[in-house]
Records
---
Amino acid sequence: MRALRILGVILIVVMLAACLILFGLRYLYTSTSDQKAIAAAMATPAPSPTPDTTPAPTAAPTPEVTAEPTATPEPSPTPEPTPDPDSPEGRALALGLPKPPEIDIDSWEFTLVNGDNSIGTYVPEQLAYLDQTAAQTDIQYNNNGYRCPVDARIAQALLDFALGCKEAGLPVFLSSGYRSYNEQAQNFIRVCQNNGVSDGKDANGHYITMPAGNSEHQLALCCDITDIYRPVKNKEIENTATYQWLREHCAEYGFIHRFPEGKEDITGVMYEPFHFRYVGVEAAAYMEENDLCLEEFLALYRDVEGYTPQTPAV
Ligand SMILES: [Zn+2]
């Protein structure tokens, strides 16, 4: 019995020891696993924050390659059609002049009056009156004192011309504009007497004064312009600063120097540095550029009584 008891104790002890060993082993295993798990966890890199996705810069649009302008091939020069020899262009060409402006030659600005072309007892439709010294800048339509009358259609251009001269610091005097048929008749007699002639012409056959009906003053599209009032108007006026200015700028205002030196045989009138005639800016510019007097200019457009253009010798 005693042996059995001892055996039982030994068994219990052995069982207890076995239990202890098993427990210990289990503890050891668990602990190692945890450590491994922790180590594994530590080793996993923390997920880095997702970077903001910056949109990839859009490539700047490449400018469309503009094709180099292809040089327009020079059109092969088409031979200029020869203008009708009786057209203004054809007449100008025959005289070695550039193409004249396209104007209505029958318009009032181009009315011709000279020794060969009378306007009879013509009276302008409406007159306008300008202060003779251009001190007043208004245009009146009724005669009021000593004012210069001209055709109303040129009044503004004449006033601008006179004021341009004044603004240049020069004195200006509108000496004579419109003269009626009767006034011109009296004027003719007086000037003839003063010069000891009866036909109004000087020794060279050029008019000093025009008979009534043949004066541009009766047409009222002109004005004798000087620096100051002068009882006698002559060639000396060309020495004044006022004349120099007027001569240089007249075309800008549509006026021409009507009776230039060297053209007396064409105009039929002696050189008058003071007499300016309105023809409009376009015609005045062409005449100025090509050194033409009114008769020469009109002859490009139509036949002119008393004047035959001289074709230059080839
Ligand atoms: Zn005059």
---
Amino acid sequence: MRDRSLPPFWQTYEPNGDCRRSSVEAFVETVEDANWYRKKNLLALRKCEGAEDLVDDISRCSAARPCRRILCPPCARLYRIWFAQQTLRWFRHSKQRPLTSLTLVVRLKQASNRDLPKISIARVHGRFRKRMRRAGIFRVIGGTEASYNELDGMWTVHVHLLLFGADPIAIADFASKCTKDGISRAVSKPQEVNDPIKQITYLQKFGTFYRAGAFDSRGKGRAYPMRPAQIAALASWTDSYEFEDFLFLAGFRRYADRIVPTEISRAARMRRVENSSRGMSGIATTWLRDEALSARAAKTCRRPAFALLSAQQ
Ligand SMILES: [Zn+2]
């Protein structure tokens, strides 16, 4: 049982201030926006049968006593800031190596309003992580979302990922495995990270609208608030989850309020060597954690937490 008397980990801040926070805040919703979305969500949720407790929690939410509900925009905002700060930290670290980082969207599961609540995030993540590892993708940070498509009335549970140092062969191998799931456009085209804060803050969102109609210049339809049946499905699905359950990690783990790298197994490294000998790009892609540095870095955030070694070493 989690201790609810303590503030959630995503609400704790750097004791000496963190320069990443203000740059991240510029790309997420403002406090005013979050409060406006809260009103919208409450309006929709009040029409849903069985959502009384959720409405009550979100209505009472405050900075002193955050409700921690997924459909509470002020809480979601703080979690998104935490997520982006941590991801940005490792992105900047990887740039010093240098490693090529790419963003990727992967569609994992589709479900109707009735079936969405039956989808287990942990199970979907577990299967997905295994598939990535088999393809040779080891270091990933991402966020999980469910989007609603009005045309077919279906939800798509998908992940927005930041891949650290993944090579094109591994991504192509992974994508070909995903096509077997039968989901259309299962894996998007990988995108280079040219606008890090904007792209990293986009990895995890908790939207309560859907897009429809003609595409705009960004290839997106207009946003509409969800109807009661949709928000009821989303509320039912998210009800048992904490924000961190939406966090997808491979080659990293969450340690209190930090995301820290984990050691990549020898078997996985060997697979990487095999790939290299098949003519992969020569980018060093195996990160080994230095335990002592990592522990210190978890406290100071100033030093690199692990050493990057080439696969051949
Ligand atoms: Zn809240």
